[in-house]
Amino acid sequence: MVDTMALLPAFFRPTRTTRRASHPAAPPQGDFEAVLDAPDEHLSPALVAAGRGEYREASALLAATRAAGRWEDRDRHTRRLAGFARCRPEWFEAWRAAAPGDPDAALVAAQLAVDRAWRSPARAELLREVSPLITAAARADDRDPVPWRIALDHARGSRAGHRYFEELWEAAVRRSPHHYGCHVAALRYLATFWHGSHRECFDFADRAAQDAPAGSLVQALPARAAFGYLTDDCGPEVPRERLDAAADRAVSLSARFPAATPGPAQMRNKLLYLLIRLGRWEDARAQLGLIGPYATSFPWERFSDDPLGQFLRLREGLLGSTSPTSLSALVRTPRRTPGGHRGRVPAADH
Question: What are phi and psi of 345, to 5 degrees?
Fold first, then answer.
């Protein structure tokens, strides 16, 4: 294996030990209808307006996140708006025509171009062609880390070399040292280019979480590394205590957010998967109460063509009498696509 410690010195430093976190238990709830990928109260009006062909709500939403430096919200909203524009482009084309220099429209344009290219068999070649859009988005507001997260995803998809990736990474963390999206992009780069290097991925994720504030989404990065390990089939074994420590960090983070809200839903759904795989049934049931009705496509679409149905089956099993063995089997093996690859990676979650 390539020596990742030498190649990416900015990523890795010695790892400290984490302690198991205590958390308040939330009562499991099973008497509500679940919804898939629900937008939050800020994004929902923008999507409704876009459905009518109007862009001003989306423009105002992203402008507000930029003015306030709410980069995590900006990243999440950009992904969803680009996803909507991929299916319903009229409102976005009107926005671009009316405000060609708008930095928020430029950001959505860059994300949309990467999303479209990602789905093509000629991904690497097409991604190289969209570089100018990412550059334009980055130049539009020098404070904004989100174009750099897009650039990091772009670099992974186009198979850019590690030195170029390091330059992008350093530029991203200068703008926002604890931006979750940029950290996820870096973790995925490591996992892609050094397939099976799960210990190195954990080293990066653990150190990033240790350096981040207690309420930062980066606290969930080790759980992301654990997900990568548990859905892979190669590389050395990761000790159980390291997987538990990753889950503990994410449990503590989840407890900081209000219960049954869409904002932290994907983090909580991913954590639910991890807890089920680890056989931590009480913690999994408590997490169901915090998730409430808010199912997310990722990670359940990795295991079923019907992600909402998969979530409902797991919820019913956790709250009913399904055996642990049967529950574990539902999340044990990522499904294979017709091309032979495990899982389906949506554009919104490259």
Answer: -95, 110
